[in-house]
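Q: I'm building a small set of examples for a reading group on sequence design. Run inverse folding on the following structure and report the sequence directly after it, with nothing in between.
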């Protein structure tokens, strides 16, 4: 990776990934793009609607990109609200990005998700290669995306790579419209109000990861020796698996008066119930040395500390 174009760069992953990539590869070597302009522009930025394939191609060509990181997509709960639009944006944007990567011979990354699994997938220690019959539009998009990315590698030789991200937790940019978002909101509410009402039921396990580990995984996979990759799209990766009362318990160690109660959102609960409890990351460990630094305990210390600082700054 030397000249990198990122779509969806103002989103949950993109806003931190761009900063990390610029610190490694140089500010001028990372072109940040999104459908809207940021409040403050730092470094190369262009407005790009991923449905506009012509502009996407031109921007990548003018920039002299050698790498394409495609992040623009709707998350699971938002996609359920407007499935047709989700299909249009998630798949249309992806095909455009793969075509541009094929035409310009770019290395390509796009994230898949634990959402690519469904109710018939083995729930515990979910294998890398297993049944994938998701019941959400987001999941359908993710499975199709994994297959398409494999197709572009096998058919056209595009160097496509991807991971199945679990819920991502960060104090910088909030996620929007995901099922795992409760695990981010809970920290905001713990600091601001000392209590949280969870829309996910007690006992619902899902995989999660702290953002610094997720960003490092993207860099490590993209830098990995291709001859070692048996899989490409997409590797299971996870840092921890917990359910709402466990994260609440961890927060209580630092905010002893913190309380959690529950008001279940049936749509997001059904999505969560269709996903694994925990996935097996061993293929990623074996093929490109995937590793994490943060477990629930360490993440909670860092999240509460950094988020308190952020919230004070934001007033
Ligand atoms: N965090 C995502 C979601 O909940 C999962 O990929 O939609």
């Amino acid at each position: 990776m030397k000249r990198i174009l990122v779509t969806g760069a103002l989103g949950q992953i993109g806003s931190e990934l761009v900063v990390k990539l610029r610190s490694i590869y140089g500010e001028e070597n990372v072109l940040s793009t999104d459908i809207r302009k940021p409040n403050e522009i730092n470094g190369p930025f262009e407005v790009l609607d991923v449905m506009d394939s012509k502009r996407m191609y031109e921007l990548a060509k003018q920039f002299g990109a050698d790498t394409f990181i495609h992040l623009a997509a709707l998350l699971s709960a938002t996609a359920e609200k407007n499935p047709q639009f989700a299909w249009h944006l998630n798949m249309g944007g992806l095909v455009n990005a793969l075509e541009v990567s094929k035409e310009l011979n770019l290395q390509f990354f796009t994230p898949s998700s634990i959402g690519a699994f469904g109710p018939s997938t083995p729930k515990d220690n979910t294998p890398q290669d297993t049944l994938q019959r998701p019941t959400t539009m987001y999941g359908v998009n993710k499975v199709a995306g994994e297959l398409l990315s494999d197709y572009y590698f096998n058919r056209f030789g595009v160097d496509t790579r991807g991971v199945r991200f679990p819920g991502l937790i960060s104090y910088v940019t909030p996620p929007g419209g995901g099922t795992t978002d409760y695990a981010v909101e809970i920290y905001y509410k713990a600091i601001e109000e000392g209590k949280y009402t969870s829309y996910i039921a007690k006992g619902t396990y899902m995989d999660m990861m702290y953002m610094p580990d997720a960003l490092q995984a993207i860099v490590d996979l993209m830098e990995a020796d291709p001859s070692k990759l048996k899989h490409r799209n997409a590797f299971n990766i996870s840092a921890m698996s917990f359910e709402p009362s466990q994260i609440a318990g961890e927060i209580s160690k630092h905010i002893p008066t913190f309380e959690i109660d529950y008001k279940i959102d049936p749509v997001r609960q059904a999505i969560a119930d269709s996903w694994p409890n925990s996935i097996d990351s061993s293929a990623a460990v074996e093929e490109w040395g995937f590793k994490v630094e943060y477990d629930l305990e360490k993440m909670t210390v860092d999240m509460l500390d950094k988020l308190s600082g952020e919230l004070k700054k934001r007033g």
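The chain is about 45% helix and 15% strand.
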